[in-house]
Backbone:
């Protein structure tokens, strides 16, 4: 192997090693009551029940990626939805108002 090829191999090897691996995404059902919403950053604060083995019941803020999911979120409304859990981010989707 000549010097140029050796350097290229080393650079490629280091680039592969430095790449951060992400955990696979998973989804869980979330049930709770909307406390407040922020349309400027499309987030909702939800007082939620236990979310599978991921989160104890608490009140926390969820980002909402899709406008159609965000539109049903109003303070005082009870919802169900899907929380998408990635690494490091998470977000709320598939929201439905519970009557």
Residues:
């Amino acid at each position: 192997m000549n010097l140029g090829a050796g350097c290229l191999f080393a650079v490629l090897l280091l680039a592969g090693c430095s790449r951060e691996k992400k955990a696979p995404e998973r989804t869980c059902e979330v049930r709770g009551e909307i406390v407040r919403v922020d349309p400027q950053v499309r987030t909702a604060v939800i007082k939620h029940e236990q979310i599978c083995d991921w989160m104890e019941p608490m009140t926390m803020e969820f980002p909402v990626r899709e406008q159609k999911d965000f539109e049903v979120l109003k303070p005082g409304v009870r919802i169900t939805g899907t929380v998408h859990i990635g690494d490091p981010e998470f977000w709320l989707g598939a929201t439905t108002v519970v009557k």
In short: Helices lie at 3-18, 67-70. The chain has a mean pLDDT of 86.
